[in-house]
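FAQ: What does the model actually see?

It sees only this:
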Amino acid sequence: RAVRLPESEASLVGRQLGEATIKAAAEAAKPAVTAPDDSHATTAFRQHVLGTVLTRAVGIARQRATERQGT
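And it is asked to produce this:
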């Protein structure tokens, strides 16, 4: 299910979407992972995956926005 990440959202709003800003948003998202370690994955791995997915998604959004501004 989708989950809002208010801390990550707040770290992005009104800022240039540079690498440092996106990395800060990814780091802000990690505490949202509350699932304990189990036989499928550790909490640390889940946090890493969340940061990676968020980084990729924001990067894609930035690229799309940039392309739209150019047309």
